[in-house]
Amino acid sequence: MREVLTRERMFRLMKELARSARGAHRVFVVGGGTAVLLGWREATIDVDLHADRDTVFRDVQEIKERLNVNIEFARPEDFVPPLRGTSRRHLFIETIGSVSFYHYDPYAQLLSKIVRGFRGDLDDARAFLRDGLVNPGKFRSLVSAIPDSAYARYPALSRRGVERAVESFLGEPSAG
Predict the structure, then answer these.
(1) Quick check: 104 pLDDT over 70?
(2) What is the pTM of this model?
(3) Is 12:26 a contact under the CB 8 Å cutoff?
């Protein structure tokens, strides 16, 4: 069984990825990793990562074993339709060596968490709003602007279901 990732262990993982990288890269932290780094949770059981180029992960198996951590390669668009402008909304964390680390677009993360709907995801989703990382009006606008054709890639989702989940979440007293 792998060890949980605390904030300290997340930074150790980031340093190890940067140490093994060849060339400049952008690595995006998603999900539980964002929650831990922003102080919303003490730990996560795994970290979801995405990168501009997968070559930054060439030593990830060795790093994963040495640090005894779970690493997944995922981003919100693997589960929900993309939101317009995502590439402009990543939040800078830090540059270590030649690797710049970012929190993946909070709006895309929020959509993924709302659609998934697990308790921990919804707690994180509320934190995105509480900490001002997502503006509810802008979020509604981005979700409503998803083209109908984008849903074809996600057969388990429908525009109606996604928009209903978003409105239900944003209508919660703790989400406003």
Answers:
(1) yes
(2) 0.95
(3) no
